[in-house]
Amino acid sequence: MPPLLWRIEGASATPDRDGWQQGIALHLQFQPLTIIRIRRDGMIRRYLALEGCPHCRPDGCDHSCPRALFAQLVRTTLPGIMLAPVTRIVPHTSEIRRLAARPTHHAQPLDTAMLAPWEAGRLITTWSRLRAAPQPITVGVLLAVSADGPDPARVLQAVGWRRGALATALNRVAFQAEVPPPVRIGGRAGEALVAALGDPQLLIGPAIAEPLALPEASDAGAQISAGAVVATSLGEA
Ligand SMILES: [Zn+2]
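Above: the input record for the complex with zinc ion. Below: its predicted structure, written as tokens.
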């Protein structure tokens, strides 16, 4: 069945960090975790997309339902956080610059601050670890932003993320889906990213976006001369 969506609400003053870290590591052995952050009208909203069991309902599920187990993890380790079921996220027509990216080894975590330079934006992050704990944790992102503000590829590059090739059709499907599918691009998560995954702030980060520090213009020119292209996806809008 397709992933189900939840809006992440509330705040947790006393997160159980150890419990969260253990739970999230266990969750990734069974299915990926997709977090969607959306900036509109100066507000940030966070969502979670998870696959459920074949009979998934908020009020009763299979014992091993990964969606129900994740909800239990949030209840027990992040008191104060609520997961509100939502049916869809309406694509924003102004989010016309789109790209997929994977981390380099020195990539910095991406949170809501990432979206601050644009009027409207959406950041979809999928964490995964295939089936067995010795596998590295991988992570990939899709970013869609409005036409104002800086080149999104340059902003990602400044914090260690590299634009990845992604089939145009996949890209379009992912951005137009009312329930975003998992990001199908990824790279091994380095130390800083694994630490970010284990931090409850991943779900409950600050609601006010701070501007991301960008390199000075003179540095940026050198950084993007290596072939980064303007990310406007005219053919996909
Ligand atoms: Zn279920």
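Notes for the reader.
The chain has two domains: 4-86, 97-196+205-227.
The helical segments are 17-27, 66-77, 152-158, 168-176, 191-197, 201-204, 217-224.
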